[in-house]
Amino acid sequence: MLSRSDGKGHRRRPRILAAMVAAVMAAGLAAGCSSESADGDGGSSGGTLRVGVVASTISTLGAYTNLRSQDFYVRNAGMFEPLAHRTKEGPSRWALATGITHNEDNTEWTVKLRPNVKFHDGSPFGADDVVAVFKRLLDKKNGLIERNFIDFMDPDGIEKVDDLTVKFKLPKPYGPFEFAVTNRTIIFDKMGSKPEQAIGTGPFKLAKFAPGRETELQRFDGYWGPKPKLDRVKIISFKSVESATNALIGRQIDASSNVLQTSLPTIEKTPGLKVMKSDDVLKVGIYMRADKSPFDDVRVRQAMQLIIDRKLALSNAFDGLGVPANDHPGFGTCLPDVPQRVQNLPQAKKLLADAGKPNLTVDLETPANKPGMLQLVQLLSEDAKKIGVTINVKKMELGAYLEKWGERTFYTSYDTRPYMEAVDEQISADASFNHQHWHDPEFESLAKKLYATADAQEQCEIQKKMKKIEYERGASILSASNPVVSVYSSKVHGLEPEFPSGNLYHFTKVTIDQ
Where does the signal peptide begin and end (predicted)? Predict the structure, then answer.
C-alpha cells in the first residue's frame, strides 16, 4: 500500500495503503516456493545481499516520516523493531516486548520490555524510549499514520513504571490493544535522536544513504537476538516494476518482490533464478473519493464495481494468480454471505443513467508501482467504453503521485493488511487518514463494537456485517486477492517472509554462496 503519512494508513495504514510497501512471500509459502530458501540451508556467512525495490525519488531517513515508499519499509525493518512480530498462526512472536497483560475490563494494559537490548550507538533501550514514541505518534502536529492505529489512547495515560515496564491507562475499554500496538510500523528509535541518525535496535544499522537511489545497511554485532550472517544489505531503488525485473534477470540485484508477472514464464525458465509465491494476501485496488462528484453518489460507485470483469482481471492483469475478491479489504476469513460480484454492464449503465451520469468522463491516476496495477486500470477503462463511459488512465511517476497522496478522486493503491487494520482508516474523521472520505453511520457503529471486544468469535461476526456494508455501498474496487511474488538468485538462502504483508523484510537468516 502507498502512503503519505498523513498517510493512507491506518487507522490509515500505508497502502501503500497506505501505503506503499513491498511484497513478497507470506508466512505459509505456496507450492511454488523453494524449500531451500525457506529453511536457510546452504551458503556461507558474510557477503552483501542486493534487494531491489520500486521506490520514490523522494526519500528520507527515520523511523517515522510523512512520505513513504517501499525502500522506507525495507530499510526500517532492518534498523528498527516493533514490540512484537505478528504470525500467521495467531500468537505474537515477541521482539522488544516480552509480554502484554491487562485488567478485567480492558482499560489498563501493561507492557513488559525485553532486557539487555542496545541501540546501535551502544546505549540501552527501555521504557523512556517506548513512552516517547507513543507520545510522538499521538501528537496531532506530527500527522503520522500510526496515530490512527492508537488514537484510542490518552497520551497522559502512558507512564513508565520502571525501566522495563510501561503502563497504558485507557479512557475506555479497548479489546484489540495488543493487535494495535504490535503493528509492524510502530517501531522504536532512540529518544532524542535525530531522524537522519536512524538509531534503532534492529539487526542491521545504517551505513550509507543516497535518497531515491540506494540504502546500505551493515550487520549490528551488538544485536540482542541471533546475529545476521550477512555483512551488508543494499536496498536499490528502481522507478518501475519493469526496471526491477530487468535488473533481476540481468543479475544486477539478488532478490526483489517487485516483479512483472508477465515475465514469470521467462523467469521460471531462467537458470539461476527462483520464484517464491505467498498466500493470497495482496489486493491491488482502485479507490473512489466518496465526498466528491461523481463518486459521492453510491450508484456511480456501484456501477464502477460492476464494470470491471474480475475473471479477466485475474487472468490478464495478475497472470491467473489468486482468486476473485468482493470489494472489501482483509484476508479470506469472516466473509459475509453475499454472492461473488461479477461484471454486469447493463446494470452499470442503468445505475449511471439513474444517477444522471450516462456519459461519464473521469480521470484515473496510477503510479503503476505494483505488478498488474496498470493492466487492471486499462481493463476497467476498456470495458467502460462499452457503455459510453470514458476513464482516462493517467500513469504517473511514483514521487509525483505520493506528493499529492490523499488528494486524488479516482486512484490506485494496494493493501496487504488484516481487516481490523484496514477498518481503522475507514472510520477516521481525519481527512488526512481517511483518503476515501467514505462515512457510513452503520459501519462506524459496528466498528466501535468491533474494537470494544476481545472475543475473537464476536469480532468475526461483526466483521461479516461490516464487509457486507462495504460490498453494498463502499468506495473500493477490489477485484482480486493475489499472492505476492518474489524472485531471487539461487545463490541466496534463508529468505524469510514478513507476515501479513508477504514482503521481503527480514534478512537475519540469509546467506549467499560465495
Answer: 1-30
